[in-house]
Amino acid sequence: MKKASVLMLTVLFIFLSVTVVWQWIIYSNKTSQVASTQKERITQAVTVKVGEKGLSIKQVFKNLQNGSRYGVIIPEQAAELVCKNLEGEPCQNDFETQSFKAKGDMLQFEYFIKFDSAAVEFILNDWLVSFSEREIASTRIELVDRIHREGTWVAGLPLKGYRQMEVVKYYVFEGQGENPSLYWLNRSLEKFSSQKGIQYYSSSPEQAGIYQFDSLKGLADKNNLSVVFNSENRIVHGNGLLLAASSLSKNELEQQLAMSFLSQKIHGLTPNNKGLLEALASLIIKQPASNPKSQAIVRELQSKLTSEEINDLTFYLAGVETSIDYTDLNDQLAAIKGMETNFFTLNKQDESGLYPLLFNDGKGLFANGQRIMDWDILVEGDTKLFPFIKTMSSLGAKANVDSRMTSIKVTSSSSNYSFNLKNNTFVMNGESFGLLETPFKMISGTVYIEEHWLEVIFKVSVEESEEEIAISQ
Fold this sequence. Notes:
Layout: H1 2-39, E1 43-50, E2 54-62, E3 69-73, E4 79-84, E5 92-94, E6 99-101, E7 106-114, E8 121-124, E9 130-131, E10 138-145, E11 152-155, E12 159-164, E13 169-175, E14 182-185, E15 190-195, E16 198-202, H2 217-220, E17 225-230, E18 236-237, E19 241-245, H3 250-265, H4 274-285, H5 292-304, H6 307-319, H7 326-337, H8 343-346, E20 359-360, E21 364-367, E22 370-372, E23 378-380, E24 383-387, H9 388-394, E25 398-401, E26 407-411, E27 416-420, E28 425-428, E29 431-434, E30 440-443, E31 446-450, H10 451-458, E32 461-464, E33 468-472
Parallel strand pairs: 1-10, 16-17, 17-19, 21-33
Antiparallel strand pairs: 1-2, 2-7, 3-6, 3-9, 4-7, 5-6, 8-14, 10-13, 11-14, 12-13, 15-16, 18-19, 20-23, 21-22, 23-24, 24-31, 25-26, 26-27, 27-28, 28-29, 30-31, 32-33
């Protein structure tokens, strides 16, 4: 008995020791991960010196991982670029892959950008070196201008400091945004702040519409937009910067501000993708869109989503702090509906027609008792759409669709069908029938048939549970 007690105590001691060691390992790993994350909170400090022929730029990235290699994107305008490490020595670099190895916790780039110092105005977009796979937590730009005694510099960041001395102008811009636009105008501009996140610049403040917009509070809360009013009837979007016509109405200005904020948040979505950008802005500010593609996107979303689901989407757009892309937009819509979709990716190009809002519920499919793999059953509103050719094949029939999508033929062991899609008629075993509408849809090059018509025309039984769909004939 005594031996058994000793044995049990020994086993218990070993178990407790292993548990403590295991917990310590987990804690150490988490601590290491947190420390690594904190160390990778990258910041950049940029010094710009304005010269007769252009801008001399020194850009310093800090809080890097010693010995890590960083892929960079070098601006097209940059000339005479050199990279230095913490000790002022040349970086270990690979210009072919545009990657540089950090020695210490920093990398420093120096380069030159040409511009005409006598220009009336100019704007620089994507003019800073940026990391291809890392985000920048904050940016500080110090600009020294010894050339222009008149004129104003504006950046796509908040203006934190300004001094005009006898022979030099000194600006400090600081905030979030890793590649803010830089703008020059040869006239004096006054700065006004109407609400958090929006700074207005104008040479004629009495002619400019300086408003507060409740709809933009979420977008502007942790972002910045510098708005420069001009007397010309033109609108130019930059990174954190908007050149706006002073003649814009309040509603028109609200729309342009929303589009500028969204283009900062959504990677790859620029004012050139006007349809989708204006549609999302329209949902946020609750105003009609003017672009035909935008109007179609808004109608599609509002017809397929409830008002609560629309609000969930706009709250996400207003509140997201990190950079997102089309996939993130799709994922958010999928999270709202509980089904996958590619709606935003398919509608990102202005020149393409509207792709309907379709979802894939991910349920398994069985045909005549056999599991069918790699199927996409799409959901449009309350309607399910089945891939027609695969569906017929799984039920033992053969379907052919002509290249112009004008006729479809189906042959099975018991029946033959011939559909004329021009006049919505079909022939079954020699007998003609009419249809009120076409039962087929062409989506991304694939023909689909609605569940209702699958049951009515082809007498296919469709049974659905929470996890699967079973069809049989």
